[in-house]
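Late entry, written up from scratch paper. The run itself happened at the end of the previous shift, but nothing got recorded in the book at the time, so transcribing now.
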Amino acid sequence: MINQQLKNMGRTIILDACALKSQEAIEIIENAEKVIVLTGTIRELDKNKDNEEQYGINVRYIGKKIRQDTKSKKYICISKYENYRYNDDNIIDYCIWHNEVTILTCDNYLCAKAKAHGIPYIFPKISKQCKINKKSEEGKNRKSSCNVKGVTYKNDKLLILRQNLLDPNFKIIIIRYGKVIKFSIERNIELNIGDTIIRVKEGNETVNLAVFEIASIECKDYAQHIEAISLRKPIIESLKKANLPVEVKRQICFLLDAGDYEEGEQDQEELYIKNRRIYSNKQLGKSYICLERNGDFIRRQDCMEGDIVYLVKKNKKSVTLYVYRIVKKLNMYSVEKIDTYSIKTVNEIYCINSSEKIKDKIREFYIRNIR
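Output as recorded:
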């Protein structure tokens, strides 16, 4: 419910330090597109970084995320809003001057101030287990942060060495910027932050996939274990049912020498994404694609997870509208169909559940190609 709230309000949040007393807040931050952190908030986080409770663990986790985001793609630190003694007032001041920002806080009185100014806010549930055993928490951290077998730290770099690649039992897939990267067994592979690694291990009856993401370039605990996937043999039949990107399915078949993986164009349906840009199936004929984010048009090459895609296809005496949502799986982008409309008259366009801008574009396509 909270995550749906965030989607409805916009995906940029401004963090109040006390929100990190909630585990739910961590999930909200992970799902947000942008996270604004004022310098006053950073000072509050710094004061609590040695806290041994869940709050301190969350503070250290977010501090590491902010530090790793060197190009401020998600975590944006702002220094200009220092006009008030209380940081709550600085947060309100920022929101007044920036639209579509949602406050994330566990402070009732900051919520009241936000309400007075008409600023949206999210109040996550405060975790019941505020105090936990430090040793048990360290055990949890060891489970979430880990090393990956076959990856070596050398000269301040994370590498997959050439000798590992030459081992016929060493089967690995690397995803970078939403694409399965091709590599040569003649040289080492250098890993980057954000790379997704899939280790493929073949058993008698199953094929097991272990999925990791590189979170930092360090000697230890540089990776996050994302998930484990088990596929039964015959592998091609299992892959057809699996919720995995097509590129990954093909690479698994290649590594296991299981033949070519082909689903034809059905797995891509009418649209597919390549290098973060949306393309239509050539067999569709005359068609038009537009993308929407929070009610605004965006370029096809700027698509992100959660964006809505509208594909209008010309028929003989009508047009068909397909509506999709962009989803992300294993750091790769694809589309899932939300709805389909058959439009035979102009009036039917205005029954579609979309913005007026989208309806006008569909109307232009209909008049130009049908009338």
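The chain has twelve helices and 21 strands.
(Scratch paper discarded after transcription.)
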